[in-house]
Write a structure and sequence with these properties.
binds zinc ion, mainly alpha, 80 residues, two-stranded antiparallel sheet
């Protein structure tokens, strides 16, 4: 991680850290170029990926929004 990270700067480092930390546990990116394939220990499909839906919801794994969608939660092992 570094301060010069696209349009995210020092004031956004917490969001970048959260997003990158979710990768450690298997969460997949949801922005352009993402895959709809399953990810994470529970093999949850990446259905909030920009290329898989026309109704993408705000999510940490898309634009570092400090909220988690159902699919990212499942990918990091947070199943209800
Ligand atoms: Zn990422």
């Amino acid at each position: 991680m570094e301060y010069d990270n696209g349009h995210w700067g020092p004031s956004d480092i917490n969001e970048v850290f959260a997003q990158e930390s979710c990768h450690i546990f298997g969460a997949a990116d949801e922005y352009a170029g993402c895959s709809c394939d399953v990810s994470g220990y529970h093999r949850v499909p990446n259905l909030n990926c920009k290329t898989c839906t026309s109704a993408q919801v705000p999510c940490l794994m898309n634009a570092n929004t400090l909220s988690r969608c159902t699919w990212s939660k499942g990918q990091i092992g947070w199943r209800l």
